[in-house]
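Why run this: before we spend reagent on co-expression, it is cheaper to look at a predicted model of the complex and decide which construct boundaries make sense. The entries below are exactly what would go into the expression plan.
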Amino acid sequence: MTIEGIANLLKEKFPDAGIEARLESRHPHVIVKPEHWLTVAEFLRNDPQLKFDWLRCITGVDYIEDKQLAAIYDFHSTQRPAQSDGLWSARGELSVKVLAPRDNPMVPSVCHLWGAADWHERETYDLVGINFQNHPDSVDDLNGRHPRRILCPDDWQGHPLQKDYEFPLEYHGIPAVTEFGQTRPLHG
Amino acid sequence: MSWIENRFEEGLIVTSLDWAINWGRSNAIWPMTFGLACCAIEMMAVGASRFDIDRFGAGAFRATPRQSDLMIVAGTVTYKMASRVKRLYHQMPEPKYVIAMGACTIGGGPYFKHGYHVVKGVDLVVPVDVYVPGCPPRPEALLEGLMRLQDKIRGQSIAKDRWRDVKEEAFASA
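The model came back. Tokens follow.
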């Protein structure tokens, strides 16, 4: 099935999920609303026509101008024959972009569908701040319930790859800002 | 010196205690097996046969800080790692020395501006004896740093506290 076919199938199957196909882009993808993402993900994983059994990557993007955070999922199907002449082709691939509001970026976790999502979601929470709900490795703290951090220390404040991130002034007594001051570029 | 001349058998060595102790210390600096990032690869090259840090008596990389004299901080020190570096340093017995190897450990290096997680120099965490610049430094540079550390050790005296200035400063500020 071509990527246009997949997009049309999703639109047919989930008419109210706000599915938008951006197939002319250099990274062809389908946009899904976060409240419908779980049902769409289950469909992508289990539908016999699609069978996207491999989650290759989750990317987090901070669209600070649109006040949105995006989780981008790259899927590949290893079971569906892609092309007669080779296994790797764009036919067996799909990208899904889930846009969440920046002030409350809640996206359902898909760990139960793709095991690879576990660490990817932890990293995306850690660096970009998208809160994956019902993640199997979640913790409760002052910031509410969220996936455990994976790269930064557990007591780290903020999400470093957000564009309005403020660098820490010190961490556990180690000064972080030098006499040259904070020199990061300004955004927004 | 007629009172001492020809009064002993062949093979007697006369030296100062300082010289003898410093000779021993400077020629058996056992480093800790401890690498944080890419500089550690160059440190491994220094330990291997081509550059052979064993020529200077510093080839016995110990797997525990309790048997080490030298910590070669080879690689980027993150805030997460800084507490571990400090703990390892405190677990080493005196006399102990630190070589800051590479641009990251000297002052943050390429992560100075935009590295939210990088300590801007390991001397903010532990006292550093010798700085070896480079990104990463050539193995020869690390050997040069080791030789400078040996010079430093040879200048020590058992009658003088290495940390006197540091202690006085800490006492004055307390």
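Strands of chain B lie at 70-74, 97-101, 130-132. Chain B has a mean pLDDT of 90. Bring this page to Monday's planning discussion.
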